[in-house]
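Recall the central idea of this unit: under ordinary conditions, the amino acid sequence of a chain determines the structure it adopts. In this exercise we apply that idea directly, starting from the sequence alone.
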Amino acid sequence: MVLQPKPHLSPQEYLAGERQASSKSEYLNGDVFAMAGASARHVLIATNVVRELGTQLKGKDCRVYSADLRVKVSATGLYTYPDVAVVCGHLLFDDEQQDTLLNPTLLAEVLSESTKDYDRGGKFEHYRTLGSLQEYVLIAQDRPHVEHYLRQPDGRWLLEETNRLNDSVTLPSISCTLALAEIYDKADLPQ
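Accordingly, the structure predicted from this sequence is:
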């Protein structure tokens, strides 16, 4: 049996297909990667974060978006759907469709067993090339645990992490605070 080579798509072909698709896919270097559905706990944690940040950002020049807004990492060509994106100031989009964000200030990912290594490693490596990105938050869904990366003035990233439900994570780039008790509200974490 002869395998047919998988066709590589241009970014324009990917976007044309993605805008018509019933499910989401990520894109990198001509390859399209279907995104698996998320667990109820994953969705609830992401929703809790969007709700908390949305409430705190009222009246401020920042907007919070859920996983349905695509982000393009121009330097590497990655198109992806972070669980939470916050933009402060003017929004920059890839084209007139205004469905692909270029300048997030903060990105957050809820970790899944199948993607946690990529979210911490390769995906964060892509994200770090975004000049606008100031903070990256990784949230475990199987236990209280938040990893918070903050870009320093010299460009290095500082990691702070916590695993106590009575702790909070301060997000200076957007002047918000996330309490772990709110992040994990009703998440029914395993014992």
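DSSP finds five helices and 13 strands in the chain.
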